[in-house]
Automatic annotation (TrEMBL):
This is L-galactono-1,4-lactone dehydrogenase, mitochondrial. The gene is LOC103339235. PROSITE patterns: FAD_PCMH (PS51387). Residues 109-280 form the FAD-binding PCMH-type domain. Its cofactor is FAD. Keywords: Oxidoreductase. The lineage of its organism: Eukaryota, Viridiplantae, Streptophyta, Embryophyta, Tracheophyta. The keyword Repeat does not apply. Pathway: Cofactor biosynthesis; L-ascorbate biosynthesis.
Amino acid sequence: MLRALTLRRSLQSLHHNHLKPLISTAIPKNPLNPLSPARACSSLSSPSASSSASELRKYLGYTALVLFSAAATYYSFPFPENAKHKKAQIFRYAPLPEELHTVSNWSGTHEVQTRVFHQPETLEELEKVVKDAHEKKTRIRPVGSGLSPNGIGLSRAGMVNLALMDKVLEVDKEKKRVRVQAGIRVQELVDGIKEHGLTLQNFASIREQQIGGILQVGAHGTGAKLPPMDEQVISMKLVTPAKGTIEISKEKDPELFYLARCGLGGLGVVAEVTIQCVERQELVEHTSVSNMEEIKKNHKKLLSENKHVKYLYIPYSDTVVVVTCNPVSKWKGPPKFKPKYGSDEAIQHVRDLYKECLQKCSVVPVKNDVDINELSFTELRDKLLALDPLDKDHVVKVNQAEAEFWRKSEGYRVGWSDEILGFDCGGQQWVSETCFPVGTLSKPSLKDLEYIEDVKQLIEKNEVPAPAPIEQRWTACTKSPMSPASSTKDDDIFSWVGIIMYLPTTDARQRKEITEEFFHYRRLTQVQLWDKYSAYEHWAKIEVPKDKEELASLQARLRKRFPVDAYNKARKELDPSRILSNNKLEKLFPLSDTI
């Protein structure tokens, strides 16, 4: 459609700028022009009729020459055999070929079209795909479920996806280990091993990620005693372009193993992983509402005494939602608690606010629209924000409604860990998440709370229409050097803070405006906070700047934190033609001989 519009615009410009001169050449106002009406009339009665006839023949010759040249050009153009005698039509556009795949991330913020999208079903098929691509030097970027906000796995040149390699291969109940194909989704894995009484040690917010993808970008759950998910990997099988299929572990090539656990898909296609699991257990989730003053008093205790803990901050308010999760006590059992409000009562004020806003905006609900009584809180929040997503006062109202929702939702919930540890993140969104060190469990630095206070001050000072929540989580460290939470000190802990802006509309102009506002919001935190707190973005959320100076600054900054030279050296050895790379990886970790 864009091509069509561009062509139409150029043709309109051609008609506007060139047809008038052509017409004026045919009937010029200049009396000296041989084809002017006055001259033509006088020539008919003039004795020099022969010279006029010769001039006429000359111009007819020019016209014939132009027509002949155009015909020769048309019939000489190298059309395919089956198209040689087809009539040319200016406004006819070829449809997209059937083999062209459109692949976008979940939020719709990054999208590519490619003709090369492999989905092998076996290890042998995957090895053949990688070998062929290596020989032809064609790219096949590994891509998972497409949930990364920055589309880190996307490539126009080609991709390989392991969705059909999704089996649980082996379960060792005694050692609590499982070996799986890397294309298996988290939920499928959890469902597949629960009959053995096992589950994963921790979970990210969403269950739809493929295991290979969630490990390669250094994804994490929450709990200051629990490391990111890559630390759970015991061994892995990589299909590499230059060295074929290799198996690596803590005992077998440990340097490469630790580097590849969070390898961003650039060192090989992760085909299989062996994961250290834990016993499946029920958890008690406790949701309560607090404020920053109380949080400061209890922060060390909350981090050290809870297996899982996270804070949700509501911008333009002092509300802090505290969510803790712990195993059900074998002696006491689950807590007995009767909530003050039912789930319907807790959300009713949000429905009322939506109706009120509709009336003020004079918006008539669509007949086929979903009944608001059937919507979850996050769905209602999207609808509310969609009415005026960049108006600060409107966003503050929505945030206040969210704070009230959480107050009315205080209480307990009991369930299996894979049911409890998930989190409804809401609809499509832009998100930036940073990770930074915050001391140890025994001596927390409180930098995590200072960071939040600085973020909230930036929001209020610059009147950013920042929706809720600002999410804060913690993890222990990992030995994977490419992880933002890597450390050589076993007792170090890290905080992860996510800021967000939702994309609750399909209107392209409005989404563009939200995107611009989000990057302004992100830029404020980047310039004023990242260096101050040694904060680095999550690999699945880092965005590559378009400005050359900003890109050079980012590259230099990454070198200070991560072993970029060692990573690039491994890339050269395992993937010399960088068929597993994409533009994002090439810009973050440039090499002198990029393809």
